Amino acid sequence: MEWWLLACIALCLYLILILFLHYRTPETHIDWSTIELQDVHFPESFAWGVATASHQIEGRNTNNWSQFEDTKDLQRSGDACDHWNRWKTDFDLIENLGVNHYRFSLEWSRIESVEGVWDDSAIEQYSNMIDNLISRNIEPMVTLHHFSHPTWFEDKGGFANAENVDYWIRFSEKMYSELGDRVKWWCTINEPAVFTSMGYVLGEFPPGKRSFKLTRAVARNMMMAHARCYRALKSMPGGESAQIGLVKNINIFDPYRRWNLLHWFQAKLLDEMFNRCWIRGLETGKFRAPSSLLSSKIDGLKNSSDFIGVNYYTHLLTTPFMPTTVEIDPLIRPWETRTDFRYPMYAEGLHRSFHMVKSLNIPIYVTENGVADDDDDLRPEHIRRHLWLTSKAIEEGLDIRGFYHWSLMDNFEWAEGYTQRFGLYHVNYDTQERTLKESGKLYADYATGTVMPQVVILAGGLGTRLGELSKTIPKSLISVSGKPMLSHILEWAAGQGCRRAVILTGHLGEQFEGFKHEGMDLTFVQESEQMGTGGALLNAIDYLEDEFILLWGDDYHPVNYRRLYAAHKEHGQSLTMTVIQSDQLVNLRHENGNVVEYSKSEISDTFNGYEAGTSVVNKSVLVSFGKSKIWSWEETVYPQLSGKIHAHIDETPFWDMGTPERLERLEEFFDNRRS
Ligand code: GAL
Questions:
Q1: Could you tell me the pLDDT band of residue 457, with boundaries at 50, 70 and 90?
Q2: Atom 10, ligand 1: residue with shortest CA distance
């Protein structure tokens, strides 16, 4: 045959192959400018969650990771988020997001720091944490291995030795026997492919090796460990109803040049090693470890997951010369945005990940998705796109049951140390202060299905009973524990997901000049003369939205606004009032969920509650009761609307600064909270 004919045939075959690959594995790119991102629908039962891992947040762990940080002279995890000491207030943060699921991991090195010796106090703390979550209606999802384990286990060779799997199974069984009566959701191993490739191919994670032989052994042993764990827990009391699954990171690999067969080859190879072989393993029970040619059966592996956890972050563009260190930027498409981690934001890959795991025919949970974004300017869009695609996939009929945002708060990002911030809450690592980011507010809006309304603060009142202190300055501007009361109130409101506040400054409005609050859009409305609380509200009517949360500028009332607002929506009254029952003070009577009588001055024996200050108001109330001149909101509206005010019972302690003694107590409260 002539050489040119051969060349033509070869070229044609090449083209056919490329076209086949091209159409079989499309690299989807959505024109996001044409998408209505708010058009999402999630089932009632959808699990909304946030995720963390023990070593990344707890602080002061001694495990394979802390050892690796020392030997490689990496940034030390150190105190991390000091979550081991601050877990209760961190759970407040979860609750404030309105999510109802929380994924976290148990730190094996705390529980069995010495081989064979259980640390009962550590187990007890985890147990208390679980009880606490449940008491808040937050469903715990527990991960048994999230990259970290005790140093004695590592010294024995960790997962590289098949016999060592027994130790981890023993630990898992112990945990299940302690917590299984309350924890329904169990993740066996987090991202075995990341653990093996980072620890044994790239050497970026402990034990920092580069060996294909070890990689194969670790991969196989981890799959075996997962299968054994699944079977072991399932056979324990209550095991049948536990939901146990593997968490798989899906990395999408796309050829950099779609006409280049070598790029395709690389993409397919990596896809096989990183994704497919693991998923196929779960499906068939036979596992071909990355870089090995043969597959072999693993006992109990087939159908060893009740759900599949998908962790999704990005896609990688492949060439035979891809960087294997994080110092070199990965390739991206020109229109893509780089995240702080340098890889691109590629939400379309989440949808492709769902399709990759759907053959398993089990419920899918997004057990991690998030972005490293220091200034939080990309994360809101990241959340919107990924949730939009999740919603689309559900509409297409994929069985996606939940979404856990990575992460609750900024934390120790493994080899990257503290340089990558993934949190919905910003963490100041010097003070351990947490601040809700705009993206956190947005995620909470999705999780609760509501956007938080405007906050209106009656901030002009003078402290007649506070003596000299506030004859001339409004109480809300008096400094308590280092900052004005108003800042404390706004901080709480912002942490509850509110974005806008109208501040009614009374007639001393000039004193508020220059007042700002991070994360809150403030509008100040001043009165020309004294108008009373009702008059002040009416005076600001043009700035008020149809619904608003009404607060008093001298009260600090850290209640959950999302719950309050949900109650307002549910009961459909035009005013919902927070009522405390346990307070010694009374000023109202409520029955069957309604405030039926209110009086500030004539306290009756039948009174059984106290108006705590935080209420949700429909503007229509103001329109119908408003009058000219000076008038008091509470003394006019509450009595007249009695019977039609929803009483939202919430026993959260309420603080005010009405008298010097109360002010002192409030100061103490803030000071204690800080330490
Ligand atoms: C995942 C890992 C998490 C977190 C996240 C962000 O691979 O499970 O612990 O670090 O990546 O990079």
A1: very high
A2: 413
Rounded to the nearest angstrom, the gap between the alpha carbon of residue 353 and the centroid of all alpha carbons in its chain is 21
For the chain, how long is the longest CA-to-CA vector? 110
Confidence of residue 470 (pLDDT cuts 50, 70, 90): low
Tokens, residue 514: 């220059």
The encoded tokens of residue 526 equal 């001043």
The residues facing 143 across adjacent strands are: 105, 187
C-alpha closest to that of 406 among 674, 126, 194, 175: 194
Q: Percent helix, strand and coil across the chain, each rounded to 5?
A: 40, 20, 40
DSSP letter for 156, please.
T
How far is the centre of ligand 1, averaged over its atoms, from the C-alpha of 355 (Å)? 21
**For residue 532, what are the CA distances in angstroms to 333, 377, 485, 630?**
60, 41, 20, 5
Q: Which domains does the chain have, with CATH numbers?
A: 49-448 (3.20.20.80), 454-674 (3.90.550.10)
Q: Give the model confidence (pLDDT) of 8-67 as tens digits.
A: 999 999 999 999 999 999 999 999 999 999 999 999 999 999 999 999 999 999 999 999
Whole-number Å distance, alpha carbon 527 to ligand 1 midpoint, is 52
Residue 51 Cα to ligand 1 midpoint, Å, equals 10
Q: What separation in Å is there between the alpha carbon of 313 and the centre of ligand 1?
A: 9
Rounded-to-integer distance, Cα 224 and Cα 300, Å: 8
Say how far apart CA 124 and CA 311 lie, in whole Å. 29
pTM, two decimals, is 0.94
Ligand 1 and 413: CB distance under 6 A? yes
Of the candidates 150, 155, 162, the one whose C-alpha atom is nearest the C-alpha of residue 63 is: 150
Q: How confident is the model at residue 193 (pLDDT cuts 50, 70, 90)?
A: very high
Q: How far apart are CA 664 and CA 657, in angstroms?
A: 8
Taking phi over 0 as left and psi of -120 to 50 as alpha, with beta for the rest, 339 belongs to beta
Beta carbon of 435 within 6 Å of any ligand 1 atom = no
Taking the centre of ligand 1 as the mean of its atom positions, its distance from the CA of residue 368, in whole angstroms, is 8
Catalytic residues: 191, 368
Which pairing describes strands 47-51 and 101-105: parallel, antiparallel, or unpaired? parallel
| Ligand 1 atom, smallest distance to 370 CA | 6
Q: Which two tokens stand for residue 546?
A: 């149809």
Q: Is 406 in the pocket of ligand 1 (CB under 6 A)?
A: yes
- Which ligand 1 atom minimizes the distance to the CA of 411? 10
Residue carrying structure tokens 């005076």: 539
Q: Is the CB of 143 under 6 A from ligand 1?
A: no
CA distance 647 to 329: 57
Residue whose CA lies nearest to ligand 1 atom number 4: 413
Alpha carbons 424 and 372: distance in angstroms, whole number: 11
Alpha-carbon dihedral of residues 536, 538, 539, 544, nearest 10 degrees? Answer: 100
Tell me, what DSSP letter sits at residue 600? S
Strand partners, 575: 617, 645
Q: Pocket of ligand 1, candidates 341, 406, 412: which has the most ligand atoms within 8 Å of its Cβ, to mutate? A: 406
Q: Is the CB of 412 under 6 A from ligand 1?
A: no
Q: Where are the alpha helices (DSSP H) in 449-600?
A: 485-495, 532-539, 561-571
Element (H, E) at 22: helix 3-24
